[in-house]
Specification:
Blueprint: E1 6-7, H1 9-13, E2 21-25, H2 29-34, E3 41-42, H3 62-71, E4 79-83, H4 89-100, E5 106-109, H5 112-118, E6 145-146, H6 148-154, E7 160-164, H7 168-172, E8 188-189, E9 196-197, E10 203-204, H8 207-216, E11 224-228, H9 234-244, E12 250-253, H10 256-260
Parallel strand pairs: 1-5, 2-3, 2-4, 4-5, 6-12, 7-8, 7-11, 11-12
Antiparallel strand pairs: 9-10
């Protein structure tokens, strides 16, 4: 069984009884308790980040990830479907993490719980506990996660584009959640929520339209795209958008602005 990367609620509804299906709900706990896709497991999104300063968005170590995915019952053959209640940030973070550890079978429920409820599909309020597995994180897939040194080495490369998914105020340096305010020199701003359709239950907007908007900013499939926000939460959704657009070289910078903006030796600029 292999589901498309972008999965509509009606499609998922036809597969709820499939073997090897793991539906992961990354909504707020109270939302999950109220209504979730039948059979969905709740995951506290904080477990997808290391959580320590100055760069809380960095990945947990392999042992911690192995424990997490064992708890979720992941096997190499598991088809994962992720969703949340915010339009894809935390769901994207899970899918990005799965891609990083080389897990091939993953999908995003388009619009998350909002689209599921709008489609008047069945919900559950009973917590679902998966059958644990013995999952071991091994090799990491190259080019999925980039570190500070890589961004420092590549941000001026004309074949590389830095996609800043934060708010306009953060990008401009008006609002700062680090010692430095502003952005990586040359970084292009396209806020993560701009790729969501606010009039269609936070589904991903039309892909051809997104492709044109991003191309106008220089975010194109022929370049290596490195996307970031403050902790690689919001930019996990923009990573997902890049995957949906078929970008062959789209990476997330897990350290993001929390790391870059608190580092003594990183260059930055502010918008005029």
């Amino acid at each position: 069984m292999s589901l498309p990367l972008l999965l509509e609620p009606a499609e998922l509804a036809n597969h709820l009884d499939d073997a090897n299906l793991l539906i992961v709900d990354l909504s707020k706990e109270q939302v999950y308790a109220q209504a979730h896709v039948p059979g969905a497991v709740h995951l506290d999104f904080k477990r997808l980040q290391k959580g320590t300063q100055p760069a809380p968005g960095l990945l947990p170590d392999d042992d911690t990830l192995s424990d997490l995915f064992s708890e979720l019952g992941l096997t190499p053959d598991t088809q994962v479907v992720a969703y949340d209640d915010e339009g894809g940030g935390w769901a994207g973070r899970l899918l990005w993490t799965l891609d990083y550890i080389g897990h091939a079978h993953y999908a995003y429920l388009n619009g998350g719980i909002h689209a599921w409820l709008a489609a008047d599909l069945p919900t559950s309020s009973e917590p679902h506990t998966p059958t644990p597995s013995d999952y071991e994180v091994g090799l990491h897939k190259a080019g999925v996660n980039v570190d500070l040194e890589t961004v420092l080495a590549e941000y001026q490369n004309p074949d590389v584009v830095i996609w800043d998914a934060r708010s306009e105020e953060e990008y401009a340096g008006i609002r700062a959640f680090a010692q430095k305010g502003g952005h990586i020199p040359g970084a292009v701003h396209y806020e993560w929520t701009d790729a969501m359709d606010k009039n269609d239950h936070l589904r991903v907007r039309d892909l051809d339209t997104l492709r044109q908007e991003l191309a106008a900013l220089g975010i194109t499939a022929d370049r290596k795209v490195i996307t970031h926000c403050q902790t690689h939460h919001r930019s996990s959704f923009t990573w997902l958008v890049g995957k949906l657009l078929g970008f062959p070289h789209i990476a997330g910078y897990a350290g993001s602005w929390a790391e870059w903006g608190n580092h003594p030796d990183t260059p930055f600029e502010k918008s005029e």
